[in-house]
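Posting for a labmate who doesn't have an account.
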Amino acid sequence: MKSDIEIAQSTKLKPIKEIAARLGITEDVYEPYGHYKAKLPLNLINPDKIKGKKLILVSAISPTPAGEGKTTISIGLSEGLNKIGKQTTVVLREPSLGPVFGIKGGATGGGHAQVVPMEDINLHFTGDFSAIEKANNLLAALIDNNIQNKNNSLGIDPRTVHWKRVMDMNDRSLRNIIVGLGGTSSGVPRETGFDITAASEIMAILCLCESFDDLKKRIGNIFVGFTYTKEPVFARDLKAEGAMAALLKDAIKPNLVQTLEGNPAIIHGGPFANIAQGTNSVLATKMGLTLSDYVVTEAGFGFDLGAEKFLDIKCVSAGLQPDAAVLVATIRALKYHGGVLLSDIKQPNPAAVERGIENLEKHVENMRKFNVCPVVAINHFADDTEEEINVIKNKCKQLGVKVAVAKVHAYGGEGAIELATIVSEVAESCASDMTPLYDWSWSIEKKIETIATRIYGASAIDYAPQAKADLKKIQGLGLDHLPVCIAKTQKSLSDNPKLLGRPENFVVTVREIEIAAGAGFIIPITGNIMRMPGLPEHPAAEHIDIDDKGKISGLF
């Protein structure tokens, strides 16, 4: 079988004007970026047209090195829905260059369920990440400039500043750095570092804002630190919000591309789900709902991470209501959760699937705690056996959950007809009335405990001394009314990546709690979560190349 990039490059793309026309958008409205990409103006969003449309959330079991394929299923499901006569747009996040050049690869789907142009989307796309990086780093420069210049100074205590610079690349050497060396003219020396762009609060803000005014207000609310007299300092005190928002004037607009089968795809924003909210922008989701009858969207990693944040933060903030939730599972992943080594994952082993299926069961339970209607999608691989597939089907029957085998990697939309039919039936008949897990007005501790015990399955919460100090700071700033966006390993329901399956009787340890007042949430950090990943021993970048004709190879 051809590789993903070979399949993408062998497909004849439709001009972007044809994709826009399918959504009722004329050439004088969209902003073309070459032949196959376009920016969509915000004035296309119409709240009145959103009413009655169907929003489908795609999530997954706890991720494994074997891969689950949420994006592939999301794209394939949108193709399948279009095939059965449901006007559908898939709405996704933009890939980060970190995973593209690192170990995970790109994020444009796989096989015959992809969004294209694959190379552009996986690399610089329309420059959104670059704009976010520049806006973030402008604030960093303004902070250091204010500390340096005594005649225009807020009296910021450098020891209290936690705002870091960002870049869209895995580079562990930049995690912790010292700036301001080289003498008095080079600034005030202080410890700081770099985060990856997807972890920037600016990324989170872009994905939750709903207008330019909202964007500027959220940027102005970014907490910078304290003065020497213990007064809080926000980005608005540095008069930073106008210039930062100006840098984002194009990045705020959702991007229109297409699927391999020529259906519309909107791709916008890219926060990671283990350290941020893990979903595409509110603007992109509402754009899709304005222009289509169905929108299929994805939340990163397992249901305990991206989907929980999608429901408790994004949906509450934006007033969104999913009509169905699809849980992606693979035979390979369930065997891994059942104790099979990665090297043996392709060997038939129904007993291991039976052992690992407790992970799927927990995620289904979690879905129902939000009062959303679940559907299980088995992302099919060629080495899956009927006996193994039947283990999942039998469990779903016991749980009272509809299930379908999806062969979208091999057959595209044709391989998703059964799944699309089931999802549309559930979306149109199930009395889904999404209920958040917690009330934002609760204390920070109660919100953390609710997620950790009810969703992760923890027995208790332990707060490190730094986390306790952070709680006092948050309360002092009057920010304890904000929702919580827990940073946690994606590899386990717990905060320990080695605990696979369905761990029980574990304690979640909160090391520290970061403030993202601009984004509008608090970030409790558990386990060993890093906001600037490193490259693996053999990074994917080693295999990426370009020839004399400008044809790129090696992307996956």
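Reply:
Got it, the structure tokens are right above this. The first helix runs from residue 4 to 9.
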